[in-house]
């Protein structure tokens, strides 16, 4: 025997016996959705305007606006952090060392009395990254502004670095293109690039180094700078998701608070 579903029965109960029952079938549902039964019908049909993510009910506007604000706040904090003097150089997590495998020679050079030169070289690379970092702001802002609702849903229900992964996928290559000229200008101003190419070419002849060395210093620093930026952005994202102290606006507290 055919059995009506609970949704069909509910919709039928709302319509039978009312003036709507006399209406033509073509406009019946439209009329039903314009009267006082709209909320009940929408709920029965599962078409309400809220989004359920995990155990939390959020309206669509809160979800998309909250995610955009999270990314905006997190990216601003990350850029401010890494672009400050010492933002890369003094942070062991993202400090840019001599390119591998030349880094194996660092301790040897220091013991041979070239410690100051090694330090100066590494300082130049990290300063280049710090000066390039602000270039990421406009591209990140554009990427955040273009985020779709489906993107926001996936990020909200994803892992603690889901937003960072999204931003890197969507904007990483374009940020690198903006970083590179700034990095090259900084490196060239101290002739670090020229000296590096000489050293790298000579070092490539050594068995301990071999042909693995990347002679393009600008490429190496740009890549490392990008890694450092997104490392700090991931940390900011994780904090905003979990730490009430990092949820500095009402919208962030609404989205992420318990």
Give your account of this protein's structure.
The protein is mainly alpha-helical. The protein has two domains: 6-48, no CATH class; 51-256, no CATH class. 64% of the residues lie in helices and 3% in strands. Mean pLDDT is 77; it is low at 1-52.
Please summarize what this structure is.
The protein is mainly α.
Write a concise keyword list for the protein shown above:
2 domains; mainly alpha; disordered N terminus; 258 residues; 11 helices
List the helices and strands and how they pair.
Elements: H1 6-15, H2 28-32, H3 38-45, E1 50-53, E2 56-59, H4 60-83, H5 106-132, H6 136-145, H7 149-156, H8 162-189, H9 192-203, H10 217-242, H11 250-256
Antiparallel strand pairs: 1-2
Helix pairs in contact: 4-6, 4-7, 4-10, 4-11, 5-8, 5-10, 6-8, 8-10
**How are the strands ordered across the major sheet?**
1-2
The gyration radius over C-alpha positions equals 28 Å
Assembly state (oligomeric): single chain
Mean pLDDT: 77
**Beginning-to-end CA distance, first to last residue:** 47 Å
Low-confidence stretches: 1-52
Question: Sheet bearing the most strands, described?
Answer: 2 strands, antiparallel
Number of domains: 2
Q: What's the total number of strands?
A: 2
Order of helices and strands: HHHEEHHHHHHHH
Helix content: 55-70%
Tally of helical runs: 11
Instruction: Note the beta-strand portion.
Output: under 5%
Q: By helix and strand content, what is the structural category?
A: mainly alpha
């Amino acid at each position: 025997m055919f059995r009506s579903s609970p949704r069909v029965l509910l919709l039928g109960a709302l319509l039978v016996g009312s003036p709507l029952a006399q209406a033509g079938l073509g406009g019946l549902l439209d009329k039903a959705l314009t009267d006082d039964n709209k909320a009940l019908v929408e709920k029965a049909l599962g078409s309400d305007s809220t989004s359920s993510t995990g155990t939390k009910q959020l309206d669509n506007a809160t979800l998309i606006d909250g995610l955009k604000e999270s990314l905006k706040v997190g990216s601003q904090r990350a850029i401010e952090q890494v672009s400050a003097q010492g933002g890369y150089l003094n942070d062991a997590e993202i400090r840019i060392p001599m390119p591998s495998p030349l880094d194996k020679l660092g301790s040897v050079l220091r013991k041979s009395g070239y410690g100051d030169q090694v330090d100066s070289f590494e300082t130049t690379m990290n300063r280049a990254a710090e000066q390039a970092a602000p270039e990421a702001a406009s591209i990140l802002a554009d990427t955040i502004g273009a985020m779709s609702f489906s993107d926001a849903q996936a990020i909200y229900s994803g892992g603690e670095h889901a937003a960072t992964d999204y931003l890197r996928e969507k904007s990483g290559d374009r940020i690198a293109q903006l970083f590179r000229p700034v990095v090259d200008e900084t490196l060239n101003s101290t002739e670090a690039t020229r000296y590096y190419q000489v050293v790298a070419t000579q070092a490539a002849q050594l068995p301990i180094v071999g042909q693995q060395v990347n002679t393009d210093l600008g490429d190496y620093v740009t890549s490392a700078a990008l890694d450092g930026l997104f490392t700090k952005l991931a940390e900011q994202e994780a904090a905003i998701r979990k730490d009430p102290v990092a949820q500095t606006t009402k919208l962030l507290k609404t989205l992420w608070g318990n």
